[in-house]
UniProtKB/TrEMBL annotation:
Annotated spans, Disordered: 1-22
InterPro entries recorded: HET, HetReg/Transcr_Mod
Composition-biased stretches (Basic and acidic residues): 1-11
Biased composition regions of type Polar residues, renumbered to the chain: 12-22
Annotated protein name in UniProt: HET-domain-containing protein
Domain Heterokaryon incompatibility: 64-196
Length: 593
């Protein structure tokens, strides 16, 4: 069983005298510790444990502080004195308490490893729902990054100077290297710390004896302009920390604006010792109403937890979890509405901006006139790419962002919120499922949530059978899915090529991910391409719902007779995706000859 902690590591064999803990009263009670003062910096840590009612506070609010830290190696332990008895804690926590101890005044802290009786599973289950309240109501959340090794304390000082704009000169390479090493510490990758800073009202960052304000730290990060490899690592945490300025005292339930699906996708590359925490650690940040699918239950297998949350996020889809793959296979229907291009390489206010090339389906469903062409998305561990796809799935009220991967799609994020034209700001998004059947496609999604220390990889295209060998489809399902995939590629060529050179990267990416190789797309962006015949044929195929390969017969016939680049690429798409399934007429054979 896991420990309640900022990393929620697996329980160690540290013994806890049962008499150290008295039973907690029901409901909103937890325990605080008094960290007793000592003028001798090397004196043993002494603490007193007492029950605390989170629902009661004085006129000045709650005065305790909450610690956010990484447990570290549980094998290396130190003894402290807790309620006059010996008590073992990890080296990381011991070092943090030494730096937090005052020489004259006691300090009231909430520290998970001490405040919760770690060998009592029932108590842990009761304390989980209080985690959000504990960190939201704390007078201050102290982030402990660890000791001042590898000049970590100096790096924090540099970030403080950058945040206060006290250093007008460009940062030197030594300082930059130290800062980037600090930002690679484990704290930034642990999933539980997201809630701890994501609901906090005031944050302090500590490394060794150096301490700076959380907002100054975030400003310093922005001015540092870290390397592109670090941006996905630190931006999600920075975004949550910046929100502390806008969280008023005690209003800890009013700040949740993201769904659990958005949160799981945003932070899926963060580390958790127990797989369940990939979901449960984010519930305190979620705007989802209480649902049976989202009630923490560590007795369930991870596959069942993943299945439940996937079904919650994609309510009108069928969901299968295939053991050994750690992958959800999600089958549903949806409308492809456009293609992403001009993605920003850097983040502004933890947002990545991008543009969308809308297609005819988007126009016919009435969204093209409502939505702006430039959108933004909250920072996550996986940056968007040119060629990613905007899709509205049945059952969802907001579109999703998908990435074509050979013969299926990976989920980049289940929810993206379109930028709406001013005159349509009060319009409600039509819930998926109430549209016409025009452009409705079979969509097969793969949603991956990495294991404890793994990173999700959405980059390498592989066939569905390579990802989940045990996933079996009926013949007609496979044919229909491949037909729809071919349609998306053809549609992408026709729409993205209108962007001229600004769409080249998007088209290169989507064709590459669709395994359409060795294509010179440069000629597509030139003028004087007569596409009327192809457009008519493609439109007719769309109206036939491309349920079977015969819908493409006329498109292929027109494409092979087109001596221009469009004909060559579109016929290649159809032949490479549909292969022997594609009916080849005598006219096609003659044209190809």
């Amino acid at each position: 069983m896991w420990k309640m902690s900022s990393t929620h590591e697996e329980s160690s064999n540290m013994s806890v005298p049962s008499s150290t803990y008295s039973p907690l009263p029901p409901k909103s009670y937890t325990r605080m510790i008094r960290l007793l003062p000592d003028e001798d910096k090397d004196a043993p840590i002494r603490c007193e444990l007492f029950n605390y009612n989170l629902s009661h506070s004085g006129d000045e609010g709650h005065l305790y502080e909450a610690l956010s830290y990484v447990w570290g190696n549980p094998v290396t332990s130190h003894s402290i004195i807790l309620n006059s008895r010996g008590f073992l804690i990890t080296e990381s926590l011991h070092t943090a308490l030494l730096h937090l101890r005052d020489s004259q005044l006691e300090r009231v802290l909430w520290v998970d490893a001490i405040s919760i009786k770690q060998d009592d599973d029932n108590e842990k289950s009761e304390q989980i729902p209080l985690m959000r309240m504990i960190y939201a109501q704390a007078r201050r959340v102290i982030v402990w990054l660890g000791e001042a090794q590898e000049y970590g304390d100096k790096a924090l000082e540099v970030l403080g100077s950058l945040g206060r704009k006290q250093n007008p000169k460009p940062i030197n390479e030594n300082d930059r290297e130290r800062c980037e090493k600090l930002l690679q510490r484990d704290w930034f990758r642990r999933v539980w710390v997201l809630q701890e800073v994501g609901v906090a009202q005031y944050i302090s960052i500590m490394c060794g004896s150096v301490q700076i304000n959380g907002h100054i730290f975030c400003e310093g990060l922005d001015n540092l302009k870290p390397s592109s490899t670090l941006i996905p690592r630190i931006s999600p945490v920075s975004f949550l920390m910046k929100g502390a300025l806008f969280r008023s005292h005690g209003e800890h339930y009013s700040t949740a604006t993201l769904s659990i699906g958005e949160l799981v996708s945003m932070y899926r590359s963060h580390n958790a010792t127990k797989q369940h925490d990939k979901v449960y650690a984010l519930l305190g940040l979620s705007s989802d109403s209480n649902s049976a699918a989202l009630v923490p239950d560590y007795k369930l297998s991870w596959h069942e937890v993943f299945r439940r949350v996937s079904q919650h996020v994609f309510p009108k889809c069928s969901v299968g979890i295939y053991y050994g793959s750690e992958t959800a296979i999600i089958k549903g229907k949806g409308w492809i509405l456009g293609y992403i291009y001009s993605t920003s390489d850097s983040l502004h206010d933890s947002q990545q901006t991008f543009k969308v090339a809308f297609n005819q389906t988007c126009q016919k469903l009435g969204y093209r006139d409502k939505w702006k062409a430039e959108w933004s998305l909250q920072a996550s561990g996986e940056l968007l790419q040119d060629g990613d796809i905007i899709c509205l799935l049945e059952g969802l009220s907001q579109p999703s962002i998908l990435r074509l991967c050979a013969d299926y799609y990976t989920v980049v994020t289940p929810v993206v919120r379109p930028k709406v034209q001013a005159q349509h700001e009060n319009d409600n998004m039509i819930a998926g499922g109430s549209h016409s059947s025009y452009g409705l496609c079979d969509i097969l999604l793969v949603w991956k949530i990495s294991l404890a220390e793994d990173k999700v990889n959405l980059q390498s295209p592989s066939k569905l059978i390579d990802i989940t060998p045990n996933c079996h489809e009926k013949f007609f399902e496979t044919e229909r899915r491949l037909n729809h995939t071919a349609y998306v590629l053809v549609d992408a060529v026709m729409e993205i090529s209108k962007l001229k050179v600004s769409g080249k990267t998007a088209l290169d990416n989507i064709l590459s991910k669709g395994r359409i190789k060795d294509m010179d797309n440069q000629s597509l962006f030139q003028e004087n391409n007569d596409l009327r015949s192809l457009k008519i044929a493609i439109e007719q195929a769309l109206w036939q719902q491309v349920e079977h390969c015969y819908a493409w017969k006329e498109v292929l016939a027109v494409a092979v007779q087109d001596s221009g680049p469009y004909g060559y690429i579109i016929s290649s798409i159809l032949l490479q995706n549909l292969g022997e399934r594609l009916p080849v007429s005598e006219a096609v054979v003659k044209a190809a000859a």
